[in-house]
Amino acid sequence: MLKNAIWITGAEGRLGSALVELLKKDMEHKVVGTDMDVDITDMEAVEQCIKVYRPNIVINCASISDADYCEKHRVEAFKVNALGARNLAAASRSANAKMIQLSTDDVFSGKTSGQLTEFDLPDPQSVYGKSKYAGENYVKELNPKHLIIRSSWVYGAANENAREDYFSYVVKCAKSGTPFEAPLDRIGSPTSARVLADFICCMLDKAEYGIYHASCEGMCSRHEFATAVLALAGYDTELANGYFSVENRGRVSILLENLMMEMTEIYTMPQWFDELKHYVEISYKEEEAKKNR
Prior knowledge:
42% of the residues lie in helices and 18% in strands. It contains ten helices and 14 strands. The longest helix has 21 residues, at 74-94. The chain starts with a strand and ends with a helix.
């Protein structure tokens, strides 16, 4: 007997593809993944999908997440990240379905030091952050059965059509023996799509609503992350050239604290290095083997 009918938007992206792969292993779930084939900014298209798929859970992974692109294409960014979330929230409520909205640490300004919890007030500065925060607000207003999950520095588990993440960028440079610059002053908590998808799956049947932060524990600079990737994947760590970036001067790194997880004791995120090691040893090497067959 089916436990859940789940509609995942943005199913070909980094997190969406990880979710589809993980959920389809459980025969108790009926999973439908859509991407560019369904325009979430079109309310009629969204309502039609709700009628056809009849989900009791909608997971919105669809997003324009390239911050530079969002700055140059403001209308498109808000249309997908805010209007798309609004449409899905309204349609999922009409079907009495739970909505899980994926969000980002960019809803915070980067002006406050220390870790930020789910109870700190967002103050987005970029178009990307503002559009994602607008999406959060639509979801909160339009569907009481909502779960908003914020994460940071998500890497791995995507198909070849997905936008390149920092992990992939580092590996690409390593394979060609190309030195690259890695900021020493960009600090964050790298989080694999695998562990984030696992957390989301854990929350499907929980009567938990509101906002949850979900990033790996600990923190590192982009340079530390890059050298760790190179070392674990067997490449020359000297390819990563550490430098201090001009654009980061005066900006405090945004670090998410998983306070709701700690309070509810529902899930424990791993340390960022432990998860990176696990990803490289299992998922990354499996993906490389498939490419070489």
